[in-house]
Write the structure tokens for this entry.
Amino acid sequence: MQRTYEVMFIVRPDMPEEEQERLITTLESNVTNSGGTVKNLERMGKRRMAYVVRKFQDGLYILMTLEGPGAMVHELERRLRVTEPVIKFITVRVDEEQKRLAKIKAIREARAKRPAAPAPEAGAPAEAPAATA
Amino acid sequence: MADETQQRQSSSGGGPNPGGRGGDGRGPRREGAGPGGGGREGGRKYFRRKKVCKFCVEKIDAVDYKDTPLLRQFVAESGKIVPRRLTGVCTPHQRRLTTAIKQARNIALLPFSGRH
């Protein structure tokens, strides 16, 4: 069962660049090993957190978009939990939401296309008085 | 409570406020209504603008937990989620909004409470 997830995690701000890279590559390999793919990886940079977490005021935010089975998420979360520099993480399933959005978009487009014919008619009388006036 | 009322005034563009002040002549008589009923008293004396759902009007379909500037508009200074009756958000969107705010709180994008 392939699903799309977004995993956002925060690593401690004093982590060296190369160690971050190492962490990210290990997580990526972890994902691919458990039958998933990394769709997108976004480093959101250092941000101020809304509250203090493990005595840190700032954090490096990293967002991963993944596709794969639930077991993959399970394994990844376990890995995140035991990785010491990771101070917070959240997993959100997004495929249902994307499906809903696609549906809304399709409906909206269909609606935009269909009244395309009546719309000019409605517009025409409005324009006509303006033209005469 | 104070925060919520504040939010309300700013979100409604100060519309009801001048009206409320306008009713000052009769104001003292109604003082017994208490401070909580600030918006309610003199309800028929001024025109209250109909609140509309921001998400419906601006056609924002996705309420994402990463969109902090948007979510912040629906969180009071104290960190509380502002109720629907104050912001005018429709039920389906408020439901999504609530989930998004809670997710954002979890990943420290929004505070659980005002200041730590």
